[in-house]
Structures are given as C-alpha cells and as structure tokens.
Specification:
By secondary structure, this protein is an alpha/beta fold. 22% of the residues lie in helices and 28% in strands.
Length: 118
C-alpha cells in the first residue's frame, strides 16, 4: 500500500451526521454519542449499530422522523444491542412496535424535553 493511501486512510473523517462522535456529560457521567442521522433507512441503522458494539444491550438509540412507509422490521435484529430505544416523530410509534417486549422503548412524540423524565 502506498504511503499516500495510508495517510489518506489514517486521516479520513466522515462528514457531519455520518457516524459523528461526540461527548457529553449526563448526571455527572461522561458519555459518548454517535450522530448517524444520515442513516435514513432501517438497513443503514442496523449496519451502524453493529459496527459499534457486539450484542450486549449497552446502546441507547434515538430513532424516528418522517414516515416514508418503510418496513421497520429489520430493526428488530438490534434488540440484543440496545438497552433503551427512544422514538419520536410521525413514524416513532411504528418504529417502537418492533422493539415491544424486547427493549425499553420511550416514545418522545415530538418533545425531547420529556426524555429526561423517563
């Protein structure tokens, strides 16, 4: 492999909202978040989650948005990866149904201020 290619791979950064890492404090704990809001279909969400962690129910995920009549059943394959699922927007309840009985699901509707109360 050429040095130019090695440097390009070493220094590559994805664009905004594409598996973008960020850190934040929550109740005195330092947490790491991943913004992958460009993952606009269930298959890309599944691929992104499986990239970050083996199944161990540690991820908290926020899913939702506009309803584009998509099939959300592929998301059910993530149940072993997720500790908490927060859904919102027009398709939030449809997304949440795929996790019913498998994960803790909180429907934020369109108001994220309610998330801190669950």
């Amino acid at each position: 492999m050429s040095q130019e290619l090695k440097n390009a791979l070493k220094n590559f950064t994805a664009g905004r909202h594409r598996i973008e890492r960020f850190e934040f404090d929550f109740k005195g704990k330092k947490l790491v978040g991943i913004n992958d809001s460009k993952a606009t279909n269930p298959h890309s969400v599944v691929a992104a989650c499986k990239t970050f962690a083996p199944p161990h129910k540690k991820l908290h995920i926020i899913l939702g948005g506009l309803d584009k009549d998509m099939d959300f059943t592929p998301l059910a394959s993530l149940s072993d990866y997720l500790k908490k699922v927060i859904v919102y927007g027009r398709c939030g309840s449809a997304v949440g149904k795929g996790f019913a009985g498998k994960n803790d699901v909180f429907d934020a509707g369109n108001d994220f201020s309610r998330c801190s109360k669950s």
